[in-house]
Amino acid sequence: MRSPTVMKAKSEALADRRRNKKPKRRGKNGGRISLHERRERILDMAGEFFAEYGLTAQTRALAEACGISQRLLYRCFPSKGALIQEVYRRDIAGPFNATWLARLEDRSRPVSERLNEFYREYYDTVLVRRWLRLFLYASLAEIDMAPTYIAEVIMRMLEVIVAEACAERGVEPPADPARRHELGWMLHGAVSHLAIRRHIYGNTNPTAVDEVLAMQVKLFLAGLAEALPARSRQGSQVVD
After folding, report:
1. Distance between terminal CA atoms of the chain?
2. Are residues 189 and 103 located together in one domain of the fold?
3. Residues spanned by the domain of 34
4. Helix axes of 155-169 and 111-125: crossing angle, nearest 10 degrees
5. Fewest beta carbons less than 10 Å away: which of 55, 128, 137, 227?
6. CB 159: neighbour CB atoms within 10 A?
7. Rounded-to-5 percentages of helix, strand, coil across the chain
């Protein structure tokens, strides 16, 4: 359990860092700002705060880090649960770019090229330290952030990855959705764990991320022919 003194010191450090990052803004009425702007400022801090201390951290400490009273925080968000839902919307689901799926389905390009491009962008945009810590803390707290993200985002992504890889490699994807998802997780899980090793575990392996991603994609595609039966219909083309 964290010492309250340590948490307060770290909260103050977060607040100082935030103040130094941005110039102070004033609302139209002198020093007063709108409720909307106040909410946005709280959300800016909440994502960083919960990523550092977990989603079970107290809102009183968050309010202190924001430089406001706990009462004002609850004027902006009726409950801690409502605040966490907004953090999910903005910090967990928000970074995902829906155009990635359309680009993954563009069969004018080799699937290996599409997968490498997608995972390079996903790694840089989504699988960053703050996102990973929030996601892991939410899972440990048994808050439904992770299951919701997996159901709403990851499952669709896995379906597209498996369908596109199997189509180009000339193999039949599993009929059972659960098996299709497990197949997709073999690649996605490897990429996610790479990010966890680099951003959470502090692994100092000097191998470039691009090189690791390329190896993961190549191994995934090469393994499809061993794991799955060939398509019965003619015309499938394998692209190396």
Report:
1. 52
2. yes
3. 4-92
4. 160
5. 227
6. 16
7. 70, 0, 30
